Amino acid sequence: MSAGCFHTLSLSQFLKGIEDHHQRVSIGHGRIEITREDCDDVCILISKAELEALERAIEILAQSEDYQSMCAVLTDVANQCLSEPAHAPCAPAR
Asked: Is there a contact between 65 and 38 (Cβ–Cβ < 8 Å)?
């Protein structure tokens, strides 16, 4: 495992100690990154309390004027891009 509150384990390592990992994470002692051999996909085990806190933070951010302004700007940029005529693809070199 890596140092600190964020541990990285292979799936097989995680499964060997799943009850211990569940207990440590559920009482708020960090996160566990779970990897698989020959696979780039990664999962993170976090506590339900941490998930709920992250979701609440997103709700608060989404209600802010700055966030709403940023969304409006991005929507305008996307609409401008969609209204521009598409360029013909380049012809293959002969």
From this structure: no
Region 54-68 average pLDDT: 93
pTM: 0.61
- Which residues are CB-neighbours of 21 under 8 A, at least 6 positions away? 9, 14, 32, 45
Length of the chain: 94
- 56 part of a folded domain: yes
pLDDT for res 1:
44
Rounded to an integer, what distance in angstroms lies between the CA atom of residue 9 and that of residue 23?
A: 16
- Starting at the edge strand found earlier in the chain, the sheet holding 31-36 runs 6-10, 31-36, 39-45
* Token pair listed for 85: 């005529």
Is residue 94 situated within a structural domain?
no
By residue range, what is the domain housing residue 61?
Answer: 49-75
For residue 11, what are the contacts with CB-CB under 8 A and spacing of at least 6? 34, 35, 36, 37
Q: Report the percent of the chain where pLDDT is more than 90.
A: 46
